[in-house]
Amino acid sequence: MLPLLLASSSPYRRELLERLRLPFVCASPDIDERHHPGESATALVKRLAQEKAIALAAHFPKHLIIGSDQVAVLGEQILGKPHTFERALEQLSASSGKSVSFLTGLALYNSQTGHCQVDCVPFTVHMRELSAPRISRYLHAEQPYDCAGSFKAEGLGVSLFHSTEGPDATSLIGLPLIRLVDMLAAEGVEIP
């Protein structure tokens, strides 16, 4: 089996990949993550996941490289990482009582053969009606400023949900393990 590389500095993705009990290393790719004009959210996350994986191929020439990227979509608007309290407050206020779709792009690149598998796994979160004081309390408690959509589903953010739906709950956290297992199997990797 070729060694595994997670092309990410995300502690959330690292923790998820650890669930598969496979040895892996992490490295952070340096790519331009800007949205191209006219590019759909699905096309964006698939492109970025693939670019992240391929960006590290020269430094890891005989690896299976995992790239992933995620956006939250409210209506037609892509919600990025808020980075500040004010932007997180705006995002959660706009999401109150609505459904937010999370699109997670996933790529598995074999840097030895050049073969790349790419997919997008959707997951929808139906938000509760959220008052400004509740949003503020949540943001001060968890500070999810590095998370698309302004909440941490693996933490206290779950208290903001009315319900969820999708094929793989791990995609909400940023690395769809069910689809990744399929991709790894296609490369001959046996999961314990």
Characterization of this structure:
The longest helix is centred in the N-terminal third of the chain and has 15 residues, at 41-55. The chain is built from six helices and seven strands, in the order βαβαββαββαβαα. It is an alpha/beta fold and 192 residues long. Strands 1, 2, 3, 4, 5, 6 and 7 form a seven-stranded mixed sheet that branches. The chain is 31% helix and 27% strand. It is elongated. The protein has helices at 11-18, 41-55, 85-95, 132-142, 170-173, 177-186, and strands at residues 4-7, 24-27, 64-74, 77-79, 99-110, 116-127, 161-165. A hairpin with a 2-residue loop joins strand 3 (64-74) and strand 4 (77-79). The protein has a single domain (4-186), classed as Maf protein (Alpha-Beta Complex), CATH 3.90.950. The model has no long low-confidence stretch (mean pLDDT 94). The two termini are 13 Å apart.
Brief rundown of the structure:
This protein is of the alpha/beta class and 192 residues long. The protein is built from six helices and seven strands, in the order E-H-E-H-E-E-H-E-E-H-E-H-H. The protein has a single domain (4-186), classed as Maf protein, CATH 3.90.950.
